[in-house]
Amino acid sequence: MAGNTGQPGASVISRALALLNAFDERHRSLTLTELAERADLPPATAYRQIKELVDGGALVRNSNGEYMIGRMIWNLGLLAPVQTDLREVASPFLHDIYAATRATVHLAVREGDRVLYIDRLSGHASVPVVSKVGSTLPMHCTGVGKVLLAHAPADVYERAMTTLTRVTPFTITQPLRLNEQLSRVRRDGYATTIEEMTLGACSVAVPITVGTTVIAALGIVVPSLKRDRPRLTAALHVAAQGISRSMTAT
């Protein structure tokens, strides 16, 4: 929640940003009162600002009278150069992997201390997952997240180690154990999860690099990795290398 936005000196833009930042993964829809409280704004001020955001398409009001992020915000996000170029370049590779496996395929980047899903392919035969395009999840319990955390800046890495929340009974919450896993990710070039984010779902993911920098992660979610992990890892590496070459050429 933003502080001091209710003070007389706060600008219109800072108040609008505070209202938009009131939404997160756990707060996808909010009432007027909740928005005002989370943005630290007087209800009357929040109401006027929200009305303008709704009129402009930045917010929408659902049938329950609660407010949600509007499509305009997502459309603007897609204009970010790295994400736009990356999604366009990676798209055919994601489709190739999905066509060969019929499993959920993820393309993700790091956003702050979380993993942001910028593309996903899945079908009726895919394992159910909680990820959605545009959503964020913890890094320590997702395959793509572990790849990104293994190559994250030191301050991000340190914060993550102090906030290892348990999502399922199999989520790794011991810093030493996770640190060992992330060391193997850097050494072996791939990460795995076993029911750490969703029961019945396992994943394997690899990094996408440009030069020596890991810019994203490519992953796949399946019911089990006992038999197919080498095959899936090899396919992901081939796709990641293709995406890396294409990104370098753009």
From TrEMBL:
Membrane spanning stretches = 204-222
InterPro entries xrefs: GAF-like_dom_sf, HTH_MetabolicPath_Reg, Tscrpt_reg_IclR_C, Tscrpt_reg_IclR_N, WH-like_DNA-bd_sf, WH_DNA-bd_sf
Q: What are the protein's GO molecular function terms?
A: DNA binding; DNA-binding transcription factor activity
**Which SMART domains is this protein grouped with?**
HTH_ICLR
Q: Where is the HTH iclR-type domain?
A: 10-71
Keyword terms, alphabetized: DNA-binding, Membrane, Transcription, Transcription regulation, Transmembrane, Transmembrane helix
* Superkingdom to which the source organism belongs: Bacteria
- Please state every residue range assigned to the domain named IclR-ED: 72-249
GO terms under biological process: negative regulation of DNA-templated transcription
Q: Which Gene3D superfamilies match?
A: 3.30.450.40, Winged helix-like DNA-binding domain superfamily/Winged helix DNA-binding domain
Protein name per its UniProtKB record = IclR family transcriptional regulator
Organism per entry = Antrihabitans stalactiti
Biological classification of the source:
Bacteria, Bacillati, Actinomycetota, Actinomycetes, Mycobacteriales
